[in-house]
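== Polypeptide entry ==
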Amino acid sequence: MKNFGFSRRSGIGGKISVSFEFFPPKSEEMEARLWDTVTRLEPLQPEFVSVTYGAGGSTRERTARTVRRILTETSLLPAAHLTCVDATCGEVDKVISEFTDMGVTRFVALRGDPVEGVGACYQPHPGGYANGAELVGALKKAGNFDISVSAYPEKHPESPDFATDIDMLKRKVDNGATRAITQFFFDNDLYERYVERVRRAGIYIPIVPGVLPVHNFAQVANFSARAGAHVPAWLAERFDGLQNDPQTHALVAAAVAAEQVLDLIERGVDDFHFYTMNRADLSVAICHMIGIRAQVGAGAAIAVPSSAAA
């Protein structure tokens, strides 16, 4: 009789934790799509969901509105993103206080990308927190929060080497970080080697792999080049010729992401963070394949704006 791998055993879904990332919508149409996604993912009972925060607080009001709605209309536990880009310490502290008053107990603390976008040179605000480690310290002083931070299996594009990059992660941990969520990657060996480096440096918080289902390969390839994430040749070949075939593209994307997650499970990983891009289909498919199914009765009804539902 064939001995199935760990990821194919019955009940494996009960041993796996997932979380999802959303971004605040810019229009009624995007808001309707986001809440359709929330409605579909809520019954999977993720550990938490995070909501991104633009450079310099450029999405501050939309982020706050999205977080508030998740808190009041769903059973989900939201984590608010927070950055220190183009803001004074006082301004950041005020945002922390506003989220705290709202009932937020989890944060994703990030230095943030430059206002000009990924790949531009970062300049700390002269009156602000200089980096993610200082931001984590400010959060820890403000309350007993659950704090997630970023990690980079291929190192941050601005870091001269892995030693410098991991030293920054250690500073975040020393200041109170609870877990690290990685930037997306497509080569699981890179993640495994990174975790080994981190453990050798004396860092023992969970290093949660960030998984990016490829909704649009051309966009992902472009962003990866700016973010310092390697796109393997085999991945490009999988999507070659599918530019005008969205249905097959979606099937291949689900297969690729599930393949990556299943391989990580075989390597001992049991916690995953999905960058959903406010789309549910691929995340639902992947979760289904690893045994995470919608719980009957889970979730709350979410009202869709009448103008968006028309």
About this structure: Confidence is low (pLDDT under 50) at residues 300-310.
